[in-house]
């Protein structure tokens, strides 16, 4: 790996980051192109342990053509996204649901909870 280019997703600016291995650096990487320290932190986390908030929908039992929007309450490792989506494909929830309701605790052992993003009576 000589250098990797990534677009920072932390804020709307979308800085073009260039990440290079640097054994002399405290974090092991040299980052350029970031306009703030959040971009620096994002780049290093992307190289060591990339994570994302998962947003999706799940079926509502007994209701056709309507889905409940859900999300994880914290970022989960990128390599677990498809495993969590496999769980969501089989999931059906009962109404009523309020935004913020816990749907699944510690989904797929990610230390993140799946919660409802919308209230549906």
Describe the secondary structure blueprint for this structure:
Elements: E1 3-7, E2 16-21, E3 29-32, H1 37-48, E4 51-52, E5 55-60, E6 67-72, E7 76-77, H2 81-90, E8 92-93, E9 102-104, E10 114-116
Parallel strand pairs: 5-8
Antiparallel strand pairs: 1-2, 2-3, 4-7, 5-6, 6-10, 9-10
Observed structural traits:
2 domains, 3-stranded antiparallel β-sheet, alpha+beta, 5-stranded mixed β-sheet, single chain, 121 residues, elongated, 2 helices, CPE0013-like fold, 10 strands
**Overall pLDDT:** 95
CATH superfamily of the largest domain: CPE0013-like
Supply the helix-strand structural class.
alpha+beta
Query: What does the largest sheet look like?
Result: 5 strands, mixed
Query: Which regions contain 5 or more consecutive residues with pLDDT less than 50?
Result: none
Q: Based on the coordinates given, report the CATH architecture of the largest domain.
A: Roll
Determine the strand fraction and express it as a percent band: 25-35%
Distance between the termini: 52 Å
Work out the number of β strands: 10
Overall body shape = elongated
What is the CATH C level class of the largest domain, in words? Alpha Beta
Estimate the helix proportion, in percent: 10-25%
Order of strands, widest sheet? 8-5-6-10-9
Task: Name the helix and strand elements from N-terminus to C-terminus, one letter apiece.
Answer: EEEHEEEEHEEE
Q: What name does the CATH topology of the largest domain carry? A: CPE0013-like fold
How many H/I helices? 2
Task: Report the C-alpha radius of gyration, rounded.
Answer: 18 Å
Give the tally of structural domains. Answer: 2
């Amino acid at each position: 790996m000589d250098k990797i280019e990534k677009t920072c997703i932390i804020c709307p600016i979308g800085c073009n980051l260039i990440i290079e291995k640097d054994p002399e650096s405290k974090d092991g990487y040299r980052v350029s192109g970031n306009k703030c320290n959040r971009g620096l932190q994002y780049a290093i986390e992307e190289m060591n342990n990339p994570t994302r908030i998962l947003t999706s929908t799940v079926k509502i039992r007994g209701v056709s053509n309507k889905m409940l929007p859900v999300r994880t309450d914290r970022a989960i490792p990128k390599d677990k996204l498809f495993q969590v989506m496999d769980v969501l494909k089989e999931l059906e929830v009962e109404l009523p649901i309020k935004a913020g309701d816990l749907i699944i605790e510690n989904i797929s052992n990610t230390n993140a909870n799946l919660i409802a993003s919308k209230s549906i009576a």
